[in-house]
Structures are given as C-alpha cells and as structure tokens.
Amino acid sequence: MSNRRKFIQNSVLGSAGILLSAKVVSASSSDTTIKKPIVVSTWNFGVQANEAAWKVLAEKGHALDAVEAGVRVPEADPKGNSVGYGGLPDREGRVTLDACIMDEKYNCGSVMCIEHIMHPISVARLVMEKTPHIVLSGEGALRFALANGFKKQNLLTPQSEKAWKEWLKTSNYSPSMNIENQSYSKENDPMPGGPDNHDTIGMLALDVNGNLSGACTTSGLAYKIHGRVGDSPIIGAGLYVDPEVGAATATGVGEEVIRIVGAHLIIELMRQGYAPEAACKEATQRIIKRNPEKSKTIQVAFLALDKNGNYGAYALQKGFTFAVKSGTEEKLINAKSIY
Ligand code: SD4
Fold first, then answer.
1. CA dist 264 to 90, 101, 116, 167, Å?
2. Are residues 9 and 114 in the same domain?
3. Which pTM value belongs to this model?
4. Is 89 in the pocket of ligand 1 (CB under 6 A)?
5. Whether residue 62 sits in one domain with residue 89
6. What is the pLDDT of residues 228-254, one digit of tens each?
7. Centre of ligand 1 from the C-alpha of residue 252, in Å
8. Closest Cα to atom 8, ligand 1: which residue?
9. Which of 221, 256, 317 most suits a substitution to test ligand 1, by most atoms within 8 Å of the C-beta?
C-alpha cells in the first residue's frame, strides 16, 4: 500500500464507524435534501478512484464520465492484483477481465473475459454506445476493442506471474478475500502491498444534475477456470442503476452474488423503502440463508447509493472498506458486517 493510501486510511478510519451510522438515512425518511454530486466506490483504492471521478463531477460533468474516469485508475495500476493491469491470472496464466457500465437511462454495456486490454470499462462503454448489443465476450470483445483503437497489451506483471507459479505448486482453489481475521503472512505474500491491494472496484455516482451512473471492473477471482465470468460484468448482479431508486454494486465471490442477483435485489429493496445500508444487509442475509456454513468462509459485500445521495454498505465479513467523496465528505469507511 502506498504511503499516501496508508495516510488516508489512517486519518479517516478512526471515526468511520460513527460516521457511517450517523449517515444512514432511509430513502423514505423526512430528509429530502439531495446530496449531490457524490461518488462512492469499493475498497481502499476507491479513494484514489473517487478523486479522478470527482474531477468530472466538480466540473458539473455527467456521472457516466465520472465513473468511467474513476475506475480507470485502478485498472491502470499494476500494484492492484484484482483489477486490470496486474490482475492475478486464471489457472492457465491468462489475465481475463470483466467490466460493465450503466447510466440513468438503463443504457448499459459489458465485456466478459476480455484479454490484453487495460481499460475494459471503456470497451464496455463503447459496446453500450456504438453497438446494438449489451454484452461482448472473449475473442469477440477483444476484436471489437482492437477495431476501435484499443491497444493490445501484456497485462500479466512479473509479480502476478510469480504468484500464479507459486499457486500452481498446490493448485488449491479457495477464494477467501479480504477476510480480516484470515491468517495472513507477509513473508508468503508474493504481492507488494499485502492483502489490501485486491478486489473489484464498483463505483456509483450522482452528478449535479441528479443523473446516476455506475461502473464495475475486475480481473475476477484469481486462478479461476479459464472462461469463468463472475458477477461484475453482469447487469443486475454486480451492478445496477435505476433512476427512480438508486444504484448498487457488489464485490466478493461472484457466484454467490449472481445467485441472488445482488445489485438488482438491493434496488428493489430500496424501492420498497429500505435505506441503502439496510438493503445491502438484507442482500447479505439472502446469501447466508442459502448456505449458512459457506457464508462464514467467503467475503461478499454490497454498496448502494440512492437517488438522493444517501449511501450505505454491508459485508459478510469484517474488512470491507468503501470510499466516499462529495462536497462535504472525503473518507474511507469500514463497512458493517454480519460476522
Ligand atoms: C468476481 N466479484 O469475479 C468478483 C471478484 C471480486 O472482490 O469482487 N473480488 O467474482
């Protein structure tokens, strides 16, 4: 973790729990002030990503441009081992990326299992804007990107290659991401920065004109079977935006998110009057209900922003952080969790 990131985390986390509980406002409460613009995003790297998004929002830009600009930051960061460049590969050593984007008019675009392209979020946006389709996958997505001026690049960094070769020695596949109490040994961690430098970025923004948009981008679960696609590029699972209600995104073990269509579930709960945090909590409880034992061993987290700029999050396990930036707040928050 860079010193700068460490500084931000240390300086804001102390009061985070209190701020979160003070901030959760029901979508149907009497507080009708609309807090805009605002951007929220998952994990520690959300702080830097929010800064990039904020440049767009502060200039009265559209939320869609903000979320695209924001998530491009971790996509291009070789130190992050779960998004874009530097992402851990699948079990064949191939870095395959998933991303999707959605605006306030239900326009959406997605790429699944795309290789060699550093900014899959921008390809997803092109799919949305320049094709009659919503999803392009694999070889077709790559060809579409190359035909539209994207460069073919090697995304496997020496560190990620080293980690993969190390993994091959046991080939033990057991995703257990960012669980605070998991045993973690710095000596055995092949990645610089330790366990904080991973996980999907999901970003949600409300611009000054009240437009909502969201973006989600990831290299997916490390050492997955080649061709595996998680929740992140699936509209309704990893991301959903509904202008009448709000936006939601997910991170963690995608298979569990897909099963409950996580992001869309949260939107529907908020439509019924749940506050963002309560809706996220209910979604985590659906995961527990299906398989209580398994839910203790994996991480899944949700983040939501309603159309009035109220936000909230909830995770299965401790350790999930999310970043908030608005005209009045800039902080990284430790989300509440079930366990
Ligand atoms: C996936 N949900 O591919 C992604 C991975 C992730 O935090 O979010 N990691 O299943």
1. 28, 14, 30, 35
2. no
3. 0.88
4. no
5. yes
6. 999 999 999 999 999 999 999 999 999
7. 4
8. 251
9. 221
